[in-house]
Amino acid sequence: MAILATAGRDNGRRRTLQKRKSGFSFAVPALLLIILFFVTPVLGLLLRSVTEPELGLQNYAELIGSGTYMRIFANTFLVAGVVTALSVVIGYPVAWALVVMPRYWSQVVFAIIILSMWTNLLARTYAWMVLLQRTGVINKTLMGLGLIDTPLTLVNNLVGVTIGMTYIMLPFVILPLVGVIRSIDPAILRAGALCGANRLQCFTHILLPLSLPGVAAGALMVFVMALGYYVTPALLGGTANMMLAEMIAQFVQSLVNWGMGGAAAFVLLVVTLLLYAVLLRFFGASRIG
Amino acid sequence: MKKQLVATVFTALVGLSGSAMADEMVFTSWGGTTQDAQKTHWADSFTSKTKIAVIQDGPTDYGKIKAMVEAGSVTWDVVDVEGDYAVQAGKAGLLEPLDFSIIDKSRLDPRFVTDYSVGSFYYSFVIGCNKTAAGACPKTWADLFNTVKFPGKRAFYKWSAPGVIEAALLADGVAADKLYPLDLDRAFKKLDSIKADIVWWDGGAASQQLLASGEAPFGSFWNGRLTALAATGVTVETSWDQNITAADSLVVPKGAKNKKAAMKFIAHATADMQQSQFAMETGYAPTNLDASRLMDEAVRRTLPDMQAKSQVNADMNYWAVNRDEIGKRWYSWQAK
């Protein structure tokens, strides 16, 4: 199994290299666009972070030296981690079901997932607010059923952010997973079962390892998106679990302190790139896609 | 003949585009019902009087103002900002000095006039209470900070701005005339005592939603939002005891493209008639001293300028100087 996987990876690499040579010129417009509208402003931001209010690394020193900012960093990673784990755990069975369902029903479920993605983010987040607040639908129902006496605090805290963000991130796990699971030859699973593997063994020894690239791709996408998420944590979270994007927005918009804002944004970018590099090392570019 | 026609059409087109450029300007404010009222009572009447079209934009964003001015490409001509920001930005060179040969400042409330800004409207932070949702209604800031006598969540303004720190100090027994310079240590200690019971609102609509749903049965609100909420049938009680006033200001970012139109717009928006109409609709007080005589007596009585007896004025100059430092401390306290 391991040998097979490695061989596959090498093949993949060779193919990507060939493609890269012949297809480079097609990528030039996109590259130019990225250099002009992403790389240049990011460099500008970096420059500000070491020049405002004066030349030096004092902004970075303040970021790293302050307990508050470090707590916001830690909280950002905590939220992103929890949301990623939950999205994978909830999304995996859905992706599997989408593959094995009759075609008609899988199209219906697909439509529901895509539609929810297309609905305005703010509208969806406000909807959660209405559902989760102390006087909201969920608390009223639970209290009406006599299951709880005092309303649960489901919003303005970590619980609210986790629920809201997991819901929004789910499609980003499900869609790549469906692609990967669909490409697995069912004959391999049948062969496994014929050789005496039970359902659980089929899953842990065949399906899961083969679909791992999909899991990794989805998880990475969700984790990186969650690190920089703004609207949902701002609306469903309390100030005590502020995330990095909110802090950057405060620096840039309210405090008009672009030196600190730039420093925070740059740290976030570096951490994200490092994570991506780690994943590349473990899975290889072609498999994460 | 044909040549002539082409020439005529060409001149007409140039003329059209030229006049279109000169005859429009951009007004930026905070959105919601407040900007709607500004559009109706200031911008629309300005356009019909001067034929200068007013394009609405928003929301106000101090980062954007700085970016536009630095890049030398300013697309906003008049911006509604918070009073303390106006003072600070004027000093930082981000604003055009106002042309007081066009804007008549003799009848404008001098509390809100600087070289770079005039008052847009002013409001009070008052204690609001949803009588249906609350057991009892807090009447003073001390009551609002008393979680034993008044258990439950209380709503406060989320951003670092004049209002909440003052309320905490007043609740802690600081005399209104001894508020400044603000004793931040004391204020944050007082805020610590109710921190777990605070729900933050980040804008007017959110504050109304919190109060109306009973999510927070009481709290500190902009007076105008309570008036609006009461008009929709929610049983709201407003306590004006030591209401804390702060003002919005109208400013012109440095390098604005339609400076002349901007000055005219500000002159129009701060005129007595426009100020009175805006105040009657929003429940915020006018900054033109002659506006109140144009207003319905019953409405007038609900405005902050009639509550002067127990009023506390937030010190915009103090805030302008200390805005950054308080802000940093405020947000790191919130994140704790």
Automatic annotation (TrEMBL), chain A:
Keyword Transmembrane belongs to the record: yes
Residue spans crossing the bilayer: 23-47, 72-92, 104-123, 158-181, 202-231, 251-279
Record flagged with keyword Cell membrane: yes
UniProt-listed InterPro entries: MetI-like (IPR000515), MetI-like_sf (IPR035906)
Domain ABC transmembrane type-1 intervals: 73-279
UniProt keywords, alphabetically: Cell membrane, Membrane, Transmembrane, Transmembrane helix, Transport
PROSITE patterns, per database record: ABC_TM1 (PS50928)
Subcellular location: Cell membrane
Membrane topology annotation: Multi-pass membrane protein
Domain of life where this protein originates: Bacteria
PANTHER family assigned: ABC TRANSPORTER PERMEASE PROTEIN, INNER MEMBRANE ABC TRANSPORTER PERMEASE PROTEIN YDCU-RELATED-RELATED
Family, as annotated: Belongs to the binding-protein-dependent transport system permease family. CysTW subfamily.
Name the record gives this protein: ABC transporter permease
Taxonomic source organism: Rhizobium lemnae
From TrEMBL, chain B:
Signal sequence range: 1-22
Keyword Mitochondrion: no
Record key words, sorted: Periplasm, Signal
Protein name: ABC transporter substrate-binding protein
Gene source species: Rhizobium lemnae
